[in-house]
Amino acid sequence: MPDVFADLVGQDETVEALRRAAADAATILRAGPPDLTAPDGAAPTSDGALAQIGSTRPGEHEPGAGMTHAWIFTGPPGSGRSVAARAFAAALQCLHGTGCGSCPGCHTTMAGTHADVRLVVPEGLSIGVNEMRALVLRAASTPSGGRWQVVVIEDADRLTEAAGNALLKAVEEPPPRTVFLLCAPSTHPDDISVTIRSRCRVVPLRQPAPAAVAEVLARRDGVEPDVARWAAAAAQGHVGRARRLARDPEARARRDAVLAVPRQLTGVGAAIDAAAALIGAAEAEAAASVADTDAAERAALETALGAGGTGRGAAGAFRGAAGQVKELERRQKSRATRAQRDALDRALVDLAGFYRDALTMALHAPVEPVNTDTSTVAGAGARKWEADGALRRLEAVLACRTAIEANVKPRIAVEAMMLALWKG
Ligand SMILES: [Zn+2]
Q: pTM of the predicted model, to two decimals?
């Protein structure tokens, strides 16, 4: 079995830092249990190792050196935040080194069955306070394997405020053997509260280079090297997206449809039609992606509520049930909205790649195109629009993304973009 960090693509420096931290963590374990007689759970300072784990102030040690109780993995979508967090969890539980990949500690962590590693993957749109309280409580218990209690929270940007406060308490006064690994897009206050961030060490992941993504697709997923190189470039550093493009014909067809847009913009009517088609495709993709989960949740809730029950108490139960059904519908609707926005954003990123190619060609810049399969069309655009026109179109796509993030109705933002792309 390969090393636990093998799937973390193009992040060599980060992997080195995490290995050093795991090695330091192992040193702390060898130093023995914390001295509980010390005031406020503070560690004895005789060898310094335990004092180190007790410290949660970032900047106190060299970046990457030493071990701490709370970490935030940040990076653009697809850069491997959760892959990194899981691999680090395995490295902390590794019995032979810093993530050998073959010992029981590594193996069970990567398989998701380690007794002392809890993985939180929010299904709905947010992680609630009850879930977080239960988690914090369990995380405070003594690790059964004698090493660390590790809690991995994917999408920590989706904590509710109350859940964030429950987590903050645990991060502020961490049990001696508990480690929190959070994943978030960035350390912006919109993603993670300033107080939690101030208690964590940040592990920034970069967007991996296409060559590194292509290598992992070929090695791990058995994708043909040519296809892997094309998909890695087209996905612009998003590892999961590259894998889908390489393996899923529907994902490829959706991308082809998006990249056909620039050729279709022949007038106002065509621009409005193109906008409607793009929105419709995003809605269809999103609906397909959430349909199975929605149906399964609904069925589970109906079973739990004993649908069709009668007799004493049934009326009261029904009133409570109506509230739960409403709550589920609300969560499903917000998940569908999020899925639509994500699908539309993927389309806009593809489109931005096309105009970026046209711009670099107009400038005769010595860089590889994002989309090798549409470079002829992009080249024709470059000659017709020249650099200025290509740049204006690229900016129109980026402005559309920004507008949608700022809650402008997607249809209006996309129509404005299509008209700008047509007019240049
Ligand atoms: Zn191991």
A: 0.70
